[in-house]
Amino acid sequence: MIDKPLLQLALDVLNIDEALCAAQMAYPAIDVIEVGTLLCLSEGMHAVRKMRDNFDSVTLVADVRAVRAGKNIAEMAFDAGADWITVVGEAPTETLESALKVAYQRGGEVQLELHEGWTRKHANRWRDMGVQQIIVHRGVELDAVGGEWPTKTLDTIRELADMGFRVTATGGISEGGIPAFSDVPVSVFIVGRAIVQAENPLAKAEAFKAAIGAVHA
Asked: Tens digit of pLDDT per residue, the chain (217 long)?
């Protein structure tokens, strides 16, 4: 049986005030708050600290997409209050290892962003290193045109879940697209603009939660 997936709010905006406004409105229906890459770059770890100050019990992600300096970046993010951080799949082994070490010491986790050209050998190594979560992206091109998730990508999620990973799905996810995941073991759905830019962010987040609940009852 598939556990009911979590709903993650991606705050890919450029200033903390806009991010806080959206998060505060949608919060009652949100499981995970993500301080997006753009926000991390624009506001630094101040954005992570501010989110933690305002949402003390929520799971908080710093989407830093580390590719180098894994130890230093991980320490900054976890010290600021993050529970999870992201590392890109193309990162050198030493970057991932050092980020994982810090995450383990701080009681956090690393989400690895899957890259093109990955193989099962890569996935086995990540699992052996201690990676628990992998992010699968539908792709920028399909995001732009609102295309459906390719069968190949859904199969990738199934394969990684079968290997023991918790898999996060991201990339232009809509309420109407949730039924495509009825037999796909997704652990987290990431939604950004659809909620942040909604006239009523809470109502939109609740609609996503309802769609997820209907599929993964």
From this structure: 457 899 999 999 999 999 999 999 999 999 999 999 999 999 999 999 999 999 999 999 999 999 999 999 999 999 999 999 999 999 999 999 999 999 999 999 999 999 888 999 999 999 999 999 999 998 644 444 455 788 999 999 999 999 999 999 999 899 999 999 999 999 999 999 999 999 999 999 999 999 999 987 6
Whether 1 is in a domain gets the answer no
Rg of the chain over Cα atoms, rounded to whole angstroms, equals: 16
* Rounded CA separation 120/129 (Å): 14
Domain of residue 95 covers 6-215
Q: Into how many domains does the chain fold?
A: 1
Q: How far apart are CA 196 and CA 210, in angstroms?
A: 18
CATH of the domain at 162: 3.20.20.70
17 inside domain? yes
